[in-house]
TrEMBL record:
Keywords: Membrane, Transmembrane, Transmembrane helix
Highest classification ranks of the organism: Eukaryota, Metazoa, Ecdysozoa, Arthropoda, Hexapoda
One annotated GO biological process: olfactory behavior
Name recorded for this polypeptide: Odorant-binding protein ABP4
Record GO cellular component, one term: extracellular region
Transmembrane segments: 12-30
């Protein structure tokens, strides 16, 4: 069985794992409380939604692992990645 790394479901599952990892490690690694992290991610979400042209309906369930496979939703995810420095701006 092989894993297709470039597939959209794999990337979306990776996003969920990255966010979960950040939440778990934030208390010790970055010195932020969970409430501070939640506030930061909320601000990031509000910043990226208009940039990508998405609505809460399309991105609201990403935290539960439900993704809509549309270009603007993927742009939103990329914006989140770049803003929290999961990926470089290349």
């Amino acid at each position: 069985m092989s894993v297709v790394v470039n597939s959209v479901p794999f990337k979306m599952n990776y996003l969920v794992l990255v966010i979960l990892f950040i939440v778990i490690c934030t208390d010790t690694a970055f010195g932020m409380s969970r409430e501070q992290l939640k506030k930061t991610l909320t601000m990031t979400k509000k910043q990226c939604m208009p940039k990508a042209g998405v609505t809460e309906d399309k991105v609201g369930k990403i935290e539960q692992g439900v993704f809509i496979e549309e270009k603007n939703v993927m742009c939103y995810v990329a914006c989140i990645y770049k803003t929290i420095q999961v990926v470089k701006n290349e």
